[in-house]
From TrEMBL:
Organism of origin: Serratia marcescens
GO biological process, one term: bacterial-type flagellum assembly
Alphabetical list of InterPro entries matching this protein: FlgK, FlgK_helical
Upper classification of the organism: Bacteria, Pseudomonadati, Pseudomonadota, Gammaproteobacteria, Enterobacterales
UniProt key word tRNA processing: no
Subcellular location: Bacterial flagellum; Secreted
Domain of life according to the entry: Bacteria
Domain Flagellar hook-associated protein FlgK helical: residue ranges: 35-92
One Pfam family from the record: FlgK_D1
GO cellular component labels: bacterial-type flagellum hook; extracellular region
Example GO molecular function: structural molecule activity
Family per similarity comment: Belongs to the flagella basal body rod proteins family.
Gene name of the encoded protein: flgK
Keyword Secreted among UniProt keywords: yes
Name assigned to this protein: Flagellar hook-associated protein 1
Length: 94
């Protein structure tokens, strides 16, 4: 048996479909990575925004009930500063 030539056969339609699918995958993968980072930023297991906001408003309500309590004032200020820092970090990321 003697091989005289090798011909490359391919289907242009299939090639275009593959390129389109790879492009779509790349776009969706980039989107997923960014959304995951935002989710981790806002819903962190160690420092979730929702918990910090709830703590702030709980302590603010405590301060309203005990307006003369200096410790309650300091707690509210600390919680407010923590929220400001978290919002600033979120703003820098977004």
């Amino acid at each position: 048996v003697t091989v005289t030539s090798v011909n490359r056969e391919y289907n242009q339609f299939i090639t275009n479909q593959l390129r389109g699918a790879q492009s779509a995958f790349g776009a969706q993968n980039a989107y997923y990575e960014k959304i995951s980072q935002i989710d981790n930023l806002l819903a962190s297991k160690t420092n979730p925004l929702s918990t910090n906001m709830q703590d702030f408003f709980t302590n603010l309500q405590n301060l309203v009930s005990n307006a003369g309590d200096d410790a309650a004032r300091q707690t509210v200020l600390g919680k407010a500063n923590g929220l400001v820092n978290q919002f600033n970090n979120t703003d820098k990321f977004l």
